[in-house]
Amino acid sequence: MSEFYRIAKLPPYVFAVINEMKAKLRAQGQDVVDFGMGNPDGETPSIIVDKLVEAARNSKNHRYSMSRGIPHLRQEMVKRYKRNYDVDLDPEKEAIVTIGAKDAIAHLLFAIIAPGDIVVSPNPAYPIHQYGVIMAEGEAHMLPMPDAATFLQGLEDLYNKPAEKKPKVILISFPHNPTTTCVDLPFMKEIVRLAQLHGSYIVHDFAYADLGFDGYKPPSILQVPGAKDIAVEIFSLSKSYNMAGWRVGFCLGNPKMIYALSRIKSYLDYGTFQPIQIASIIALRECEEETIKIRDIYQERRDVLVEGLNAAGWPVTTPQGSMFLWAKIPDRFAPMGSLEFAKLLMEKALVAVSPGIGFGPMGEGHVRFSFIENPHRTRQAIRALKPFLQA
Ligand SMILES: Cc1ncc(COP(=O)(O)O)c(C=O)c1O
Fold first, then answer.
1. 141 assigned to some structural domain
2. Where in the sequence is the domain holding 39, given as residue range(s)?
3. What per-residue confidence (pLDDT) applies to 162?
């Protein structure tokens, strides 16, 4: 247990156990097929890299940049929202550049949450959704999400409990990591209606905005009329443009929340390195086709993995969005729990997955596969899993 107050509230990182096992096996020369982390393996489109190199050569770009992002980049993001969602945003007051979505979520929570404020989010979830709240000394109120309708009902029930303190913030993310739950615009309308009625803000983490499969287009919460009065959306370049290492994201929508975030960030950072911001303008302006290619690559991998696991005797359902498969642990292995099961997959089949428990208490009973291995290696993993599953 750490002597430091905030650190003591953070549990050990469950994924580290699997990462260490993987590193050990690889050091022994073993070929581990790694579906663990949602870390895109594809390269950033070359015109973005070329722009970075060009901008990096200009010494004007070596100085401190702007914490809330250079105006051209904010304008380009706003144009993309108009093009893709027919949403109007003011680049001055309703858009801020962040150091990825993670920075946006953590610092926004830090900016808007007071000790004891309730933040409701589905669980399991991307860890910062829970621990960002805990680090900001809020109260993380988790609702189960076997499906979107159950989550919505849980939220409504929570609001209807007379004695309960009302949630300050609803923190959601669709397509959802790790459960892959996807929603439609009527769902977004309903959640905005509920939050408006009860005086909550909404933060929508839209990290998988461009990863909808089979013609499904994930809706932006800002498409809901009036959403801007209470909601912000967080967009990221990490998955849409294979730019995870570049650390570029946005927070868009409600001007009060954006202002609060800009105040906090002005104390904490000087913005992303300016050549990265300049190259990001090219991504948003000229790489729409690339996002489609990236999505199609994930869709093909999804199909190989889902078909293969089903054929090998592990029944899984096909996700409509995100870059993950959320697989229920086969019944006979379920009692051992997701961490032990993930360790077993590594030992017996040299396959790395993320144990569901790492995504919060309600993640137990599942493991998550990321689509970061190509079809050939995915088939190799399935061949290795088959005898183990059928033994
Ligand atoms: C739901 C969710 N939000 C945010 C992120 C992180 O995005 P970024 O790289 O922009 O910080 C991830 C990454 O896996 C994620 O799954």
1. yes
2. 7-43+290-390
3. 79
Confirm if 219 and 172 have CB atoms less than 8 A apart: no
Q: Please check whether residues 204 and 272 belong to one and the same domain.
A: yes
Distance of CA 270 to the CA centre of its chain: 24
Q: Please count the structural domains in the chain.
A: 2
Distance 176 CA to ligand 1 centre (A): 10
- For residues 112 and 134, membership in a common domain is answered with yes
Please state the pTM of the whole predicted model: 0.97
CATH number of the domain where residue 300 is located: 3.90.1150.10
pLDDT of residue 16: 86
DSSP 170: E
Q: Nearest residue CA, atom 3 of ligand 1? A: 207
Residue with tokens 């893709």: 84
| CA 211 / ligand 1 centre spacing (Å) | 13
Q: Which two tokens mark 299? A: 């869709």
Which of 260, 287, 314 terminates a domain? The answer is 287
| Segment 315-343, tens digit of pLDDT | 999 999 999 999 999 999 999 999 999 99
Residue 164 has pLDDT above 80, yes or no: no
Nearby residues of 81 by Cβ (< 8 Å), 6 or more positions away: 87, 88, 89, 220, 222, 252
Residue 227 within any structural domain of the chain: yes
- Residue 199 burial (10 A CB sphere; 0-12, 13-18, 19+): exposed
Query: Which residues have any ligand 1 atom within 6 Å of their CB?
Result: 38, 100-102, 126, 173, 177, 205, 207, 236, 238, 244, 249
Classify each residue of 171-195 as buried b or exposed e, where b means 16 or more C-beta atoms within 10 Å of its C-beta. Answer: bbbbbbbbbbbbbeeebbbbbbebb
Specify the amino acid at residue 7: I
The Å distance, Cα 339 to ligand 1 centre, comes to: 22
DSSP state of 343: H
DSSP string, 189-217: HHHHHHHHHHT-EEEEEETTTT-B-TT--
Distance of CA 234 to the CA centre of its chain: 10
The CA-CA-CA angle for residues 167, 170, 172, to 5°, reads 160
Return the exposure string of 121-143: e unless at least 16 CB atoms fall within 10 Å of the residue's CB, then b: bbbbbbbbbbbbbbbbbbbbbbb
**Which of 287, 321, 349 is at the close of a domain?**
287
Alpha helices in the chain (DSSP H): 14-27, 46-56, 71-85, 100-112, 127-135, 148-160, 185-198, 237-240, 255-268, 274-286, 288-311, 338-349, 375-390
